[in-house]
Design brief:
Layout lengths: L1 E4 L8 E4 L9 E10 L2 H7 L16 E8 L10 E4 L2 E3 L5 H4 L10 E2 L11 E5 L4 E2 L6 H4 L5 H11 L6 E5 L3 H12 L3 E6 L4 H10 L3 E4 L8 E6 L6 H8 E9 L20 E4 L5 H10 L9 E5 L3 H9 L6 E5 L3
Parallel strand pairs: 10-11, 10-13, 11-12, 13-14, 14-15, 16-17
Antiparallel strand pairs: 1-2, 3-4, 3-8, 3-17, 4-5, 5-9, 6-7
Length: 329
């Protein structure tokens, strides 16, 4: 099989020919149809995630079809499944037993500890695979597996008393969860990098009430804000935008350092909340909700061999929506 492999931190992925892996007990072999490109993949390539397994096949927004099952797994052949970031948790620790499997100390993540979907085939733990609604093509469904799921968890952690929601960094996750938020009756205030009028226009086309630079104050106080951009300086900016009792949710797995800020902008029972990974509950809830909204991903297709190009486009903010690697099926 062909795969794009990260052999060394900071180096481009290398197109490599590898044997098709065999599924072990509890695992399933999938023929990959599509894999979305996530900012976490950039963090992986740039060495911003600790203890990266090398060599590794990145990619954790995978849609594929069952080719072979390991012992204990009974998916019918050709069943279409989605594979998310969380690829394994122990099921026995205090976090798992509390329903917080996303915090499991033994957790393993797809495309980081486990070979991912930048390949023609991949192995996944069957417990961490989701059925995909037939309303979506594989390319359309791929961004739902991380951008959608992390967006959903971030929105859920904003709480119930939210009418005006700010979103900092209007990319893949933001454009998906904005659709859910607007469907729920929320007002969206979209913040982009300075001068990114294309993203601001896109946000307004999706129904955002307001869109502007992240350096600009919104016209009203916000009930909550979600930060998807991995930029620590946005935390004080978001705190200044939310009302007393409001929450700022940091939706990324990695963020640059948060600068010192005056206590006054945190005071008034404002909160800063990080998001760590996702749970299978998040996946089941969001993938049931998405076709009801319906959530539509704006995508740009790339062949597997152009994964490096897709990553660089993402790095430089040259994508509107999500990049998706589409395999020859």
């Amino acid at each position: 099989m062909k795969a794009m492999v990260l052999e060394a931190i900071g180096q481009p992925l290398k197109l490599t020919e590898l044997p098709i892996p065999d599924p072990g007990p509890g695992q399933v072999l999938l023929k990959v149809e599509a894999c979305a490109v996530c900012r976490t993949d950039l963090h992986l390539v740039d060495g911003e995630l600790p203890k990266t397994r090398l060599p590794i096949i990145p990619g954790h927004e995978i849609i594929g079809r069952v080719v072979q099952c390991g012992s204990g797994v009974e998916f019918p052949a050709n069943t279409r499944l989605g594979v998310p970031w969380l690829g394994y948790s122990c099921g026995k620790c205090e976090y798992c037993l509390r329903g917080e499997e996303n915090l499991c100390d033994q957790a393993q993540f797809t495309g980081y500890h486990i070979n991912g979907g930048y390949a023609e085939y991949t192995i996944a733990d069957a417990r961490y695979c989701f059925p995909i609604d037939p309303a979506y093509t594989s390319a359309e469904a791929a961004p739902l597996m991380c951008a959608g799921l992390i967006g959903y968890r971030s929105l859920r952690l904003c709480g119930d008393n939210v009418t005006r929601l700010g979103i900092f960094g209007f990319g893949a996750a933001a454009h998906l969860i904005s659709q859910v938020a607007i469907w729920k009756g929320l007002e969206i205030y979209a913040f982009t990098r300075a001068g990114d009028t294309q993203a601001q226009t896109f946000a307004k086309q999706l129904g955002a009430t307001w869109a502007g630079d992240s350096e600009t104050s919104p016209p009203v106080q916000l009930d909550a804000a979600i930060i998807f951009a991995p930029v620590g300086t946005l935390v004080p900016a978001a705190l200044r935008s939310v009302r007393k009792g409001g929450v700022v949710v940091c939706g990324g797995i990695h963020m640059s350092d948060i600068p010192a800020f005056p206590y006054q902008i945190l005071w008034g029972e404002r909160r800063i909340q990080s998001v760590a990974n996702l749970t299978r509950r998040d996946g089941n809830e969001f993938l049931k909700l998405a076709p009801q909204v319906p959530v539509h991903a704006k995508i740009e297709h790339f062949p597997l061999s152009s994964a490096n190009q897709a990553l660089e486009r993402l790095r430089h903010g040259q994508l509107v929506g999500a990049a998706v690697l589409v395999m020859n099926t």
